[in-house]
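Milestone M4 deliverable, item 7.
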Amino acid sequence: MTILANVLSTPIGIVRSEFKSKVGVPIQTAGAPRFGAELEVLPAYAAGLRDLEGFEYLIFLTHMHLVSEERLQVVPFLDTVSHGVFATRAPNRPNRIGLSIVRLLSIDGTTLRFEGNDMIDGTPVLDIKPYVPAFDIRQTERIGWFAGKRAKLPGARSDDRMR
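Output delivered:
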């Protein structure tokens, strides 16, 4: 258990967003390309931002801090039937880790401005990784229950089902 105790560490920064509650937030960054926000990186991590401006897209790994319960079966926002949580992108997860792919607009000191925001104000960011299409894109037609739901994404927002 010693290894598991050290899995998550201190956040490197905090998201500043127009979304103040869990209801009404875009459910994926792909469905929110024009929603902007900022990431305020803590000064201790400033050196880690070097060369980041050369990337158009970034991957943020976050802690979904407002999730109040863990579930292993959920009815996700794009569906009306229950699925195992690991077959969804629902926030009610055992470790409440979120993943957001955002478009970097600018960096001013330790503030990153970006578009594609699906995060609530105050969301702790655990890590930033550059998005590299050659590494990150996989062509597939096998996307499980999402196959019939993709058309619902544009404009889809969270509701109160994830407490």
